[in-house]
Amino acid sequence: MTLQDLFGYAAATLTTLSFVPQAVLTVRTRDVSGISLGMYSCFTIGVALWLLYGLALGEWPIIVANAITLALAATILWTKLRYGPKPSTPISGDAP
Q1: pLDDT tens digits, one per residue of 1-45
Q2: What is the 3-state secondary structure (H, E, C) of the chain?
Q3: Which residue from 63, 88, 89, 94 has the highest number of Cβ atoms inside 10 Å of its Cβ?
Q4: Interatomic CA distance for residues 44 and 38, integer angstroms
Q5: What is the pTM of this model?
Q6: What domains are defined for the chain?
Q7: What angle is formed at CA 32 by the lines to CA 72 and CA 63, rounded to 5 degrees?
């Protein structure tokens, strides 16, 4: 393992672990009021693309970090979609 690999794994470990407390808290409390649907949607898609990039390169630090981060981010996003406020539908005859 090279020094570059060690840096990659260290960075991957720290950035991936940073999502664990948020994912645990979000699932446990189901409080998604402070979570942006747009941000987590874009972030989750971006992490999926980083995972594909890592797979294409065969770079394990990128693959492992983004596979785990994708699972955590998708969990938070799913929780937001499941327990977040539902858009209100106007009642028939109500003015917009």
Answers
A1: 889 888 888 988 998 999 899 999 999 999 998 889 999 999 999
A2: CCHHHHHHHHHHHHHHHCCHHHHHHHHHHCCCCCCCHHHHHHHHHHHHHHHHHHHHHCCHHHHHHHHHHHHHHHHHHHHHHHHCCCCCCCCCCCCC
A3: 63
A4: 10
A5: 0.79
A6: 36-82 (1.20.1280.290)
A7: 15
